[in-house]
Amino acid sequence: MQSRDIAPHEILLPVKPAFIAFTLIAALLVNLLPWSGWLLAIKPDFVALAVLYWCIQQPHKVGFTTAWLMGLIMDVADGSLLGQHALAYSVLAFAGIVLHRRVLMFTMKDQILHVIPLLLMNDLIVLVIRKLAGADFPAWSYFAGSLIAGALWPMLSYLFKLPQKPKPDPDHV
Description:
The protein is mostly helical and 173 residues long. Helix content is 65%, strand content 0%. It is globular, with a radius of gyration of 17 Å.
């Protein structure tokens, strides 16, 4: 029988709703930065990444309503067809909520392997809606953002958990 190196689970403080809102707004603002050139071609959807993270980590606090509203805001801010991001983020939220217990049990590498297909599905939904509306196929590099977002998953997990980590007890040696 092989032994697996399993890190002990951390006991985290409850996440504050204001922090969740802050991360979602920050993700929206990063999405709306004036990306250009090759960076635009490989830019991850930071809002989708943040919505998926919170649906996996806090499915009772972030769900369909948050995903749908963030999608509508993204549609309006991006000047795209109203509802395309809302639909894609809602499906992404559903997948995140359904798989949240499974994903949390895995190592970070395995989490990435679960997150990337979900983000690719999100991009595919947006692409299909754009194609149905008459847009041209952007290029295969359109899907590179999902791969990069998957690579950002460990850093995002670390940063989003920082406020939840308890402060060390000075009396405890």
